[in-house]
From TrEMBL, chain A:
Gene3D superfamilies: Lipoprotein localisation LolA/LolB/LppX. This is Outer membrane lipoprotein-sorting protein. The keyword Hydrolase does not apply. It comes from Chitinibacter mangrovi. The keyword Disulfide bond does not apply.
TrEMBL record, chain B:
This is Uncharacterized protein. Residues 1-36 form the signal peptide. It comes from the Bacteria. It comes from Chitinibacter mangrovi. The lineage of its organism: Bacteria, Pseudomonadati, Pseudomonadota, Betaproteobacteria, Neisseriales. Keywords: Signal.
Length: 267, 446
């Protein structure tokens, strides 16, 4: 056991003891899973919605790519997890293509050839992006959260924040990342930072959530800065805009509706 | 709103990064250096300008091609060239009404070797033009020319019942191009959807002097005029179709199709796919019906009908380097087996009619075929896609190879394609006049 992990475990134990003692006076207890769910509620609205997502990619300080996606999401009434319909807006060669994720089903539709093709999670459609990367996800449904530490961490605005550091372990194999280290603001449960790990526990990406703005009544992050785990000069800036409640009927989230989808319908 | 952003590294990229590996490793091992890298990234993000990209209701591109075709011994080589204009519009008038238009114009030119002359033609293909009425969010009605495409196989679609006679201008033998650049059929179509399933029904009437049942090598009444709507080809007979799909459980949503063409027995279609692992997907497409064989149709003779099955089944595996490999086995019971195929090869005119019919119907002329497609995105360098396609006739052992390198610029694609066909003189791929060909293409998106 390393000194760091020992210290972290001690901190976690102390935190839990404090929580138990506090709980004896005031109920209920806030668990790591609750914290994660609260953070999810800041990232994701509570009913079906749509937004625009612009990805600007840099390598060694130079912009090498950009793309824009329109994302429509609706929570599954049974599992609570979001189902996503993603429409490519730019570059122009990809405009109108659709990606649907419904549970474990992933469908890709090309409007020119009218072909709906089942794809596997490994098939990437956004340059080097994994399909799951741009999906709206409630992390609390896919991960077991545990408290690793309380610590001050530098946020995306370069300010020190008192945070809870959570360790997220995947509940099943249908997720993009096996493990996530997730920093949540102690004062308001906002996501601050995350580190994403592979099944071999290799750091894949670091993400900073920042530019919090009021959207649909909640202060939400509108920009995520992603740093590659191996090459820190490989950076993606992901910006969300036009977040709005959208009517996305259940019946649209299936393969047979893809040829018919028109973004103006989801108003 | 999203869990994280893209850009996870691949094995290939790991290789390309080895040049800066040592410095990078040192950086990773140092928390202070990592912190500095994070600050650099945040500074870069600060400087990123705000951009707004609106969703467009149209897409327009032009494509230019220059090629060289090496033909069989005794036939001179030729130099084809082409300019294409392709427009698609999907416009919503209001909450309920929507209009769809897809049109393509190909300006073709063929120059014979050594300046022995040239040929020109222009072919306009009105692929789609229809109005759609959303009666309710889950109930729709469409009317007009619609490209109704069934099937989830890659290269051979036995349940794609509207593909027969739909090709008007073949600009590439890539399966996606054959599906894209074809005539839709004039029809009335309705669809009802529910959670996890849908039911659709359509009726496509006979128009003009088209004939049904595929009994002719060339659709009678087909209009080869440059700007003809060519409804006789797209609507050769009264046809209707019912399609039902239902999600049975996570990852399994089969589709059942019932198709009927005037003068023929009903045809059954079935589509299903499964996700075997996070890198492997499997699919199967089937159709079956009582009919005459392809050879009987080509000879335009009657005879006993029997039940024929067609199947296209395959798998796609994705490797960590973002290389996808698809392997598809194709079975056509109505086509000729080895004995029949060899015998037909000795009958010049009958062989020609049979091949014409199979081409028009987009059906395989022999019983067993294999298709392979390898697609490697961002291969060797960023924005470069490599594709290798192979079609193998398992009956006569002829082969078609197709290789494409495509580089993406911001608004344009530059592609180089090579195609080669090998086999005996009467084989599926060896019979073609073309032996080898090379094409350079540039596609510009407006």
């Amino acid at each position: 056991m390393t000194a760091r992990s020992f210290t972290m475990k001690r901190q976690a134990l102390a935190l839990l003891l404090a929580a138990v003692m506090q709980n004896s006076l005031a109920a209920p207890t806030t668990t790591a899973q609750d914290l994660l769910a609260a953070s999810d509620a800041i990232r994701n609205p509570d009913r079906s919605f749509g937004l625009n997502n612009t990805l600007i990619e840099y390598r060694d300080g130079k912009q090498i790519d950009s793309s824009t996606l329109a994302i429509y999401a609706r929570a599954d009434s049974k599992t609570g997890q979001f189902r996503n319909l993603i429409r490519f807006v730019s570059p122009q060669r990809d405009a109108g293509k659709l990606l649907l994720k419904n549970g474990n089903d992933l469908w890709f539709f090309d409007p020119s050839s009218k072909a709906s093709v089942r794809i596997s999670p490994q098939q990437r459609l956004l340059g080097q992006a994994a399909n799951g990367d741009v999906m709206t996800v409630n992390l609390a449904l896919d991960y077991h959260a545990s408290l690793l530490a309380e610590e001050d961490v530098q946020d995306g605005e370069r300010q020190k924040r008192a945070s809870y550091l959570l360790n997220l372990k995947a509940k099943h194999g249908e997720v993009t990342y096996e493990r996530i280290e997730y920093w949540i603001d102690r004062s308001n449960s906002r996501p601050i930072k995350a580190k994403f790990y592979s099944s071999s526990d290799r750091l894949l990406k670091t993400a900073y959530y920042r530019q919090f703005k009021s959207q649909l009544g909640v202060e939400r992050p509108t920009e995520t800065v992603i740093i590659d785990g191996l090459d820190p000069k490989w950076i993606t800036v992901m910006r969300t805009s036009d977040l709005a409640y959208r009517d996305v009927p259940e019946s649209w989230l299936q393969r047979d509706y893809l040829p018919r989808f028109n973004p103006e319908q989801a108003k | 709103m999203t869990a994280a952003a893209p850009r996870s590294p691949s094995v290939t990229q790991l290789g390309t990064r080895l040049g800066t590996g040592l410095a990078m490793l040192a950086a990773l091992l140092s928390p202070a250096a990592a912190q500095a890298d994070d600050l650099d990234a945040l500074s870069l993000a600060d400087q990123t300008p705000q951009t707004e990209v609106e969703q467009q209701s149209w897409q327009f591109f032009t494509e230019g091609m220059l090629g060289y075709i090496n033909r069989k011994e005794g036939q001179s080589d030729i130099h084809p060239s082409r300019i294409s204009l392709d427009l698609s519009v999907d416009y919503r008038f209001n909450a309920q009404w929507r209009g769809v238009l897809a049109n393509r114009l190909d300006l073709n030119r063929v120059d014979l070797k050594d300046g022995q002359g040239s040929q020109h033609e222009q072919i306009n293909t009105l692929k789609e033009a229809y109005l759609s009425w959303q009666i309710q969010p889950d109930w729709l009605l469409d009317a007009g020319r619609i490209n109704q495409r069934n099937g989830m196989a890659y290269a051979y679609n036995p349940s794609d019942f509207f593909k027969a006679g739909a090709l008007r201008s073949v600009v590439s033998i890539a399966p996606a191009s054959l599906r894209e650049n074809r005539l839709g059929s004039a029809m009335l179509r309705t669809q009802y959807l529910w959670e996890g399933g849908s039911l659709s029904a359509l009726y496509a009437p006979r128009v003009g002097d088209g004939i049904g049942d595929g009994t002719s090598n060339i659709a009678q009444g087909a209009d080869s005029g440059s700007f003809a709507l060519d409804l006789a080809s797209s609507n050769p007979a009264d046809r209707w179709q019912l399609a039902w799909s239902q999600r049975w459980f996570d990852g399994f949503s089969p589709q059942l199709i019932l198709f009927k063409e005037a003068g023929s027995a009903p045809r059954l279609g079935l589509n299903a796919s499964w996700l075997a692992s996070d890198a492997l997907s499997l699919y199967a497409e089937y159709s079956g019906a009582r009919s005459r064989s392809l050879a009987q149709k080509a000879r335009q003779i009657g005879g006993d009908e029997r039940f024929y099955s067609r199947l296209s089944s395959g798998a796609t595996y994705t490797f960590p380097v973002n290389l996808s490999l698809t392997l598809e086995y194709q079975y056509n019971q109505a086509a000729l087996d080895k004995t029949g195929w060899q015998a037909l090869g000795q009958q010049g005119a009958a062989y020609g009619r049979y091949r014409s019919l199979a081409t028009r119907e987009q059906d395989n002329p022999t019983r067993h075929n294999l298709f392979m497609l390898a697609s490697w995105n961002n291969a060797l360098m960023r924005n470069l896609d490599l594709s290798l396609m192979l079609r193998r006739d398992l009956v006569d052992h002829s082969t078609l190879h197709w290789l494409e390198a495509r580089y993406h610029f911001k608004c344009a694609d530059l592609a180089l394609q090579w195609q080669s066909q090998q086999g005996s003189a009467i084989s599926q791929y060896g019979a073609a006049a073309e032996r080898n060909s090379v094409q350079a293409l540039i596609k510009y998106y407006f």
